[in-house]
């Protein structure tokens, strides 16, 4: 973690790691939490393996879906870690994503109350980190993490 370049978020999710992992790897579950509500998500590709694509679209009206994310998974350690970047698109082409290029590392570990869920977003320079923070990193990623927790905690309670 480099505080000049990175942003982090942590949360305990009161669900087993396997349930949180499934929400990350199952397209129908992923679409339910990946974008802050009421924005809707459509998953075009979710290939959670090294080199696999992550392609999503978003809609505010439920009719027109526009591109949201086109990224590649770099590292996938089942039930423990997912690393993806939007600096390489799902076709493995270098890209200049808006609003900022980043590499996201998601780690899951056991916690007495469920899953210790951590997000580390790496940026290439302090300006990109600052831009991401200004655009609402904490609110956006915090909101979708809350939605992920809500989905998985409800599944775990069944």
Sheet with the most strands, sense and barrel status: 7 strands, antiparallel
The H/E string reads EHHEEEEEEHH
Radius of gyration: 15 Å
Helical/strand content category: alpha+beta
Question: Helical percent range?
Answer: 25-40%
How many DSSP E strands? 7
Q: How much is the average pLDDT?
A: 97
Give me the oligomer status.
single chain
Instruction: Tell me the fraction of residues in β-strands, as a range.
Output: 35-45%
Shape: globular
Separation of the first and last Cα atoms:
37 Å
By DSSP (H or I, 4+ residues per run), the number of helices equals: 4
User: What's the arrangement of strands in the largest beta sheet?
Assistant: 1-7-6-5-4-3-2
Uncertain residue ranges? none
Structure report:
The chain starts with 5 loop residues before the first strand and ends with a helix. Strands 1-7-6-5-4-3-2 form a seven-stranded antiparallel beta sheet. With 158 residues, it is an alpha+beta fold. Helix 1 packs across helix 2 and helix 2 crosses helix 4 (137-157). The protein is 29% helix and 36% strand. A hairpin with a 2-residue loop joins strand 6 and strand 7 (114-122). The protein has helices at 17-25, 27-33, 126-134, 137-157, and strands at 6-13, 40-46, 53-59, 66-77, 81-85, 103-111, 114-122. The model has no long low-confidence stretch (mean pLDDT 97). The longest helix is centred in the C-terminal third of the chain and has 21 residues, at 137-157. The chain is built from four helices and seven strands; from the N terminus they run βααββββββαα.
């Amino acid at each position: 973690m480099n505080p000049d370049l990175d942003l982090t978020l942590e949360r305990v999710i009161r669900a087993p790691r396997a349930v949180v992992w499934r929400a990350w790897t199952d397209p129908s579950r992923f679409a339910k939490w990946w974008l802050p509500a009421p924005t809707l998500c459509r998953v075009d590709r979710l290939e959670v393996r090294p080199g696999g694509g992550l392609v999503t679209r978003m809609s505010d009206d439920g009719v027109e879906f526009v591109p949201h994310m086109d990224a590649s998974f770099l590292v996938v350690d089942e039930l423990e870690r997912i690393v993806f970047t939007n600096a390489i698109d799902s076709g493995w082409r270098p890209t200049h994503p808006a609003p900022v290029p980043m590499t996201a590392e998601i780690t899951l570990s056991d916690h007495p109350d469920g899953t210790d869920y951590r997000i580390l977003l790496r940026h290439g320079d302090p300006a990109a980190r600052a831009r991401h923070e200004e655009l609402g990193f904490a609110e956006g990623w915090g909101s979708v993490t809350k939605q992920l927790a809500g989905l998985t905690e409800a599944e775990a309670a069944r």
